[in-house]
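**Reference record**
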Amino acid sequence: KMLYIVNFQQEYLYESAANDRFDSIYRMLRMKYGDMKPTSNGNGFSFTDAHKNMVTITVHPGTSKGGQDFWYCDLTYYWGAGALLTYMKSLNEI
């Protein structure tokens, strides 16, 4: 009964365009969350605060529902879910 995740996603035809957007958003996040150390998560970065709130920025290839190949840039906010996501990742590594 509580919103804990919101995702914004934009598709791009070219990897370079998606990476340009990624770089722009990453710089904005660094300015906003400069006191938090970003953690690499494979295809992007995560910023987590002491309250387990997290924001992630990623770039990845994918196929749309219509079958067209795109590059996606995702910006996702999690409220209080950082601990849960870290736990789930550790389970997948077992």
The helical segments are 15-32, 82-92. The CA atoms of residues 7 and 76 lie 4 Å apart.
